[in-house]
Amino acid sequence: MRSKAGISVVQMKKGTLKRVLGVFDLFAIGYGDLGSSIYYALGVTALFALGATPVALALAGLVFVCTALSYAEMTSICHESGGSASFARHAFNDLISFIAGWGLLLDYIVTIAISAFSVGPYLAYFFSDLKQTPVLIIFTVVLILTLFVMNVFGVRHSTRISLVLTIFTLLIQAVIIGIGVSTLLDLHFIEEHIRIGVPNVDWSPTWPQFIKGIAMAMVAYTGIESIAQLAAESKKPIKTVPRAISLTMVVLLLVYLGISVVALSAVSAHDLGTKFLLDPVAAIVAALPFGKEILSPLIAIIAAVVLTVAANAGLLGASRLTFNLGENYQLPRVFHFIHARYRTPVVALAIFAVLSSVIVIASGGHLDFMADLYNFGAMLAFLSAHLSLIVLRFKKPHLERPFRAPLNISWGQYSIPITAVIGALATFSVWCLVVITKPYGRYLGISWMLLGVCMYLYYRKTRRLKSVGSIEIEKISVPDFKPIEVTKILVATSGLKETHTVQMACELAKLHKAQIMALRVVEISPSLPLDAKLDRRMEMAQALLKRAEAIANEIGVNIDLEVIRSRSITDTILDVAKKGGYDLIVLGSAASFQDAANHKVGSLVETVLRKAPCRVFICS
After folding, report:
1. Residue 425 Cα distances to 127, 366, 535, 575, angstroms
2. Where do the H-state alpha helices sit in 396-529?
3. φ and ψ at residue 618, rounded to 5 degrees
4. H or E stretch including 89?
5. Measured between alpha carbons, how far is residue 474 from residues 1, 100, 477, 481 in Å?
6. DSSP string, 2-52
7. Could you say which of 107, 202, 514, 610 is the most buried, measured as most Cβ atoms within 10 Å of its Cβ?
C-alpha cells in the first residue's frame, strides 16, 4: 500500500511492552553493561597507551560524554526500542537504519564474546587451569552455549537483581578506589609517567600507540545502547531515559578515573597491559597494602558475575534489536522466529551464540582482536546516532525536545549541537583507524557489513519493498486473532480419490510440526457382527492407508495408521478425536459431501462440525 510519504505496511497491533522501568532501573541495567567493561578495557587500553592510560581513558571519556548527550536527546524524541537503528530510521531512511543496526548487532555479538571470555581470568583465582589459553577458550564457548540454553528456556534476571548487583559492584569499586587513593596514590609518579613519544622509555607510548590506546579505551564506553534499547519499556521515557543516561555517564567517568589512577599507582603500565591484560582489576586488588585477602576472592566472584550478566545482556539486546529490525522489514522473519513452547527467539539466539563462539575461537585468546571488532560495529552505531541528531535539527527544527544537548551554535531557526559534531568526528576517526590499521577488524568488519547489506537488499526485493526510503507501519487491531497451534491432526480417509485430502493434512502437519494419524473407519451393518469376515473391505482399507503413508513419506512427515470397525463412521471419528486429544480433524470430499453436484454438506460433516471437540478442516 502506498501513502503520500512512501510505502505503508499494515501490521497487526500486538500491544506494547509494559512501561515499568524507572531511572534507577535503567541506570542499573546500563551500568551493568557499561561498568562490566572496566574488568577488561583497562588492560587492553594499557597495552597501547602505557603510562598515558589515564589520558587515553579521559579523552575517550570526553567522546563518551558527547555520545551520551546525543543518545539522551534522541531517546527523548524516539520512545521506541532499537537505539541508533531507530534514530537513523527517523533521520534518514531504512537502508541507513539497517547499516546502523547491523553494525550494532556485530557490537552485541562481540559483547557476548569479550564479556564471556573475560570471566575465566578472574575465576582463575580459584581454578588456575583457566590461565591456559586452550582451557579458557573452551570454558568461554561452554559459558556462551549455557547462556543460550538459559535464554531459550526463557530465564531472565530481574531489574531488582540488576540494581542490587550494581549497588554491590559500586561499593566494591569505591572501596578499592578508597584504599588505593589513601595508601598508594602518587600523583607526582603518575604525572612523570604520562609522557608520550619519549624514546627509550618503556612506559612512554609512541603517538601512533597512544592513538590506538584511545581507540581501545572507547571499548570501555560502548554499552550506552543498552539503555536506549529499553526506551519502550521505561516509564515517561522523555524524562527517565535522559536522566538515566546522564547518571550513568557521571558515575562511570568517576569510577574509571579513580580505577585508572589507582591502577598506575599500584601496577606498572607495562605489566598492566601484558602480564595482567586479562584481569587488570584483580592485579590492582592484589597490590593493595591491606584488604586484599578479602577483596581478591570477592572481586573474582563479582567480576565473573557482572561479566556473565553483561554477556547475557548482549544476547538479550541482540534478540531485541533483531525483533525491531524484523518488525520494520529490515531482516528476514527467520531471525525472530519464536519457539512454539518457550516463546523465545530461538533462531536469533542460536545465531548470535554460535557467532560469538566463532569469534572467541578465531581470536586465539587475543583480547585486542575482539576489541577491534567491537569498535568497528560500535563506532558505526555511534556515528549514526550523532548524524541522526544533527540531521533532525535541520529536518525538524521545531520538534519538541524534552532533553536538548548543550553547547549549540544557532543559525537562524536551526542549531548545530557541537557535542554531536565532536562525537561524529571522533567516532568516525576511530572507525577509520580500525579499518586502516587493524586487518582483522577491517576484513571481518567489512565482510559482516557487506553480508548484511546484500541480505537486506535481497529481502526487500522479495517483499517488493523499496531498499532506500522509509516504510510507514500502520498497526490495526484484530480482536479475535489468536495464534493457531496444531499439535495433533486426524485425517479421516474415505475413498481412493482423496489424495488431495491426505496431502493437505500432511502439509499442515509439516507446517505445524504436528503428529498426524490417518483413520479409516469400516462401517459394519447392525445385521452383522463387528468381527464379521469382510476381506474385500479390509483389503481396501489397508490399501487406502498405504497410499496415505506413501504421501506422508513423500512430504516428509511420519504418519500413524489405524483401521477401526464400527457401527457409525461419525461417532467413531468424534470418539477418536476426543480420546486422542486431536486439535484438528481433516475430512475429505467423499466423506464430506452427500451431493457433490449441489455442494451440500452431508449429515456426516454436519454432525462432526457440530459435535467435534476441535477445529474441522473440510477438503472439497
Report:
1. 44, 28, 87, 73
2. 418-437, 439-462, 499-512
3. -110, 120
4. helix 84-91
5. 10, 23, 10, 17
6. EETTEEEEEEE--------B-HHHHHHHHHHHHGGGHHHHHHHHHHHHGGG
7. 107
Contact between residue 425 and residue 383 where contact means Cβ atoms under 8 Å apart: no
- CB distance 54 to 257 below 8 Å: yes
Helix (H, G, I), strand (E, B) or coil at 111: helix
DSSP letter for 339, please. Answer: P
Q: Do residues 589 and 501 make contact, with C-beta atoms less than 8 angstroms apart?
A: yes
DSSP string, 348-399: HHHHHHHHHHHHHHHHTT-HHHHHHHHHHHHHHHHHHHHHHHHHHHHH-TTS
pLDDT at 20 (0 to 100): 65
Residues 6+ apart with CB under 8 A from 138: none
Instruction: Give which of 225, 294, 223, 289 is closest to 256, Cα–Cα.
Output: 223
Place of cell 451393518: 525
Sign of the Cα torsion 306, 307, 308, 314 reads positive
Contacts of 500 (CB under 8 A, 6+ apart): 588, 619
Asked if 47 and 275 touch (Cβ cutoff 8 Å), the reply is no
Residues 203 and 129: their CA atoms lie apart, in Å, by: 31
Q: What's the rounded Cα separation, in Å, for the pair 134 and 140?
A: 10
Amino acid at 455: M
**DSSP SS3 for 494:** coil
For residue 601, the model assigns a pLDDT of: 44
- 367, 110 Cβ separation under 8 angstroms: no
Alpha-carbon gap, residue 7 to 468, rounded angstroms = 11
Task: Please give the average pLDDT of every successive group of 10 residues along the chain, which has 620 residues.
Answer: 55 60 79 82 89 89 91 85 85 92 90 92 93 94 92 65 82 91 84 81 85 85 73 76 86 88 86 89 91 91 89 81 84 75 77 93 89 87 94 91 90 91 94 87 91 94 84 77 86 76 92 92 86 85 90 93 90 92 83 41 76 88
Cα separation, 56 vs 47, whole angstroms: 11
Positive/negative CA dihedral, 593, 595, 598, 603: negative
